[in-house]
Specification:
The chain has helices at about 5-10, 30-55, 60-85, 110-140, 155-175, 185-215, 230-235, 240-255, 260-290, 295. It is an all-alpha fold. The protein starts with a helix and ends with a helix.
Length: about 300
């Protein structure tokens, strides 16, 4: 008959419930990094497809669109490589306990909070480049067929950059509007930080509205050269703001540290939005340039 120590050291049973696999956090590292790898792989395939279409097509406008999609996919692929290293515990100075480790140092939820800061810094630097390219590309898809509602590409780019900067202030300047404890700062500073962060996020939403309405305001069924796909690839941008709102609401309820389930939710939600608005969009642009768009995207 085995002793309790021998049983704990044996290989019998479900490895997920083996004592050596237990951690003070809920989700295993390989799961966190795997979700990012799926997005990274999608970006790589999209970049390859766009690059090949850029080389093959003879149409100048199509070549420009494919080149922009290739750039977007490559930049996103690079940034998701950074996210993978963070989730793999190799890209951040703060590491969570691994199976079999004895928890030491900071509280687990605080470590997750620091890691999430690093992950969101990668996301915002990614958006700061890719969203600008996407805005230009979406306008070029309508060029010659539909005029923007109010202003041209330069102002659309300016508002996009402003939107990202305002959102970054809310995320990093106020830690998603989380209250400041009395032993950290004075209450007056707490009120200013949260109010200014809320105002910055509201202004970011206004910027997004102007960018999208300016792009789509004059598009109708009769004059849309994309057959409705311009709406399919631009309106989901609202989802990024929705995920941010959900994150801020959850953080108000769980302000002690960072809920790991929220971190997982953001990885999956932002990853899904990125795959659609960048990878799938890149493949759509590539198939359009090659003349097989209706065959591949005939839902």
């Amino acid at each position: 008959m085995m002793t309790s120590v021998e049983e704990a050291q044996s290989l019998k049973g479900n490895v997920l419930f083996h004592p050596s696999f237990s951690t003070p956090h809920e989700f295993p590292v390989f799961f966190r990094s795997a979700s990012c790898r799926v997005v990274s792989g999608s970006m790589m395939l999209s970049g390859i497809a766009s690059a090949l279409a850029c080389i093959v097509t003879d149409l100048p406008e199509s070549r420009v669109g494919c080149a922009l999609s290739t750039a977007v996919s490559l930049v996103a692929f690079y940034h998701y490589g950074k996210l993978i290293s963070i989730r793999d515990q190799s890209g951040s100075r703060v590491s969570l306990s691994k199976p079999g480790d004895v928890p030491m140092g900071q509280d687990t939820s605080l470590k997750i909070g620091w890691q999430e800061m690093a992950a969101d810094a990668v996301r915002y630097s990614d958006w700061g480049v890719t969203l600008v390219f996407l805005v230009v590309e979406l306008h070029l898809l309508l060029h010659g067929a539909v005029e923007p509602k109010w202003f041209g590409i330069p102002w659309a780019v300016t508002l996009t950059v402003s939107m990202i900067a305002l959102g970054a202030y809310t995320r990093f300047g106020t830690d998603e509007l989380v209250p400041i404890r009395s032993d950290q700062k004075k209450s007056l500073l707490d009120g200013f930080a949260r109010l200014s962060g809320l105002l910055a996020f509201a202004l970011a939403c206004v910027c997004l509205f102007f960018v999208m309405y300016n792009l789509l305001g004059n598009v109708t069924t009769a004059n849309d050269p994309t057959g409705g796909w311009i709406f399919a690839f631009s309106i989901p941008w609202v989802g990024y703001g929705v995920v941010s709102i959900v994150s801020m609401i959850v953080r108000q309820m769980f302000s002690e540290g960072y809920p790991e389930a929220l971190s997982v939710f953001k990885d999956i939600a932002y990853g899904t939005l990125d795959v659609w608005s960048k990878a799938v969009f890149g493949v759509w642009v590539a198939t359009k340039a090659l003349g097989v768009n209706e065959t591949v995207f005939s839902f």
